[in-house]
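Mods, move this if it's the wrong board.
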Amino acid sequence: MPGIMLISENSSLTCVKFMKKGVLMEAVVSIVIKSWDVMAIMAPYLLLGFFVAGVLSAFVPVSFIENHLGKRGLRQIVKASLLGVPIPLCSCSVIPVTASLRRHGATKGAAISFLTSTPQTGVDSIAATWGLLGPLFAVFRMVVAFITGVVCGAAVEALTPPSEEAGDGCRDEHCPTCNRKNGVNKWKQVFVYGFGVLPRDIGRALLIGITLSGLLGATVPEDFFTRYLNSEWLSMLAVMALGIPLYVCSTGSIPIALAMIGMGLSPGAALVFLITGPATNAATIATVFQTMGRRAVIIYLATLAGCSLAAGWLLNRIITAQIITEHIHHHAAEAGRFEQICALILAGLLISAVLPRKTKNCCHAG
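Not the wrong board. Structure tokens:
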């Protein structure tokens, strides 16, 4: 009798182990499927964005930007924000470019305007936003990036005395901006940058974002945010507190925002995350403090926070989560052979980008 009971207990333990393994495998498969669905929706738009980013990198030199931002005034701030919107620089790679702008004579207002608008968007993230969250959300995000750049830059310039505007100046005789090399094949640069440098710079963050989106979509209940953060302002403040110190690139943040909306977060709160996440992080704040001072940091963060909350509130009056969900379901249902091929190409690019390389990449992009 005791022997029979022992065999029964062992059998029960074996069944429990198999059940646990089965549940774990089912969860892993669900995460992979969800992640691949996001990849398939993003891929055609993101590959197009990579190409356009390569064109911008090859045919629009950094010196062109720097030469137009050297005087105080709203016009320079508007130009800085406008130029920053399509350029694919993330919140870390924009730091050396902004420092270079200051060294080459850009005002604090123009530098902050560029620093604010640039990491929020780029041709790659605009295309990916269009594919994942819909055209209305993409256009609204692009406009908000421009406006927040102008507002933050204008606020910093208005509250900064002209006597504090002087930059350090560029004294590097080997500066690539001041000594730009000619005779390089431009179209080769398009593909080297668009499908080489750029994927290497954002590939890790993008893969993490897509995987996290699949993880959240597969494991977190759809009513999570409506259950625990059912207040519009509370949810926006919560994601803003998460986004400001966190590093996330403008493209890698999109699938995370999509997953948040799928869990019940409002589109406005998702937009707050898409503004504050890419536009700020601890490194950006430290750099602004070092190059422009404490006053600029406080004005920059306070203005950006106010703009993001106002933009989120306005977006909630224009678009609903249901519209975004319907857009996603429509594109997921239409994902055919072309989208799957693009997803395979994108996956290959990103996996290749995150593999160790023998030589370090000296380019800064995002």
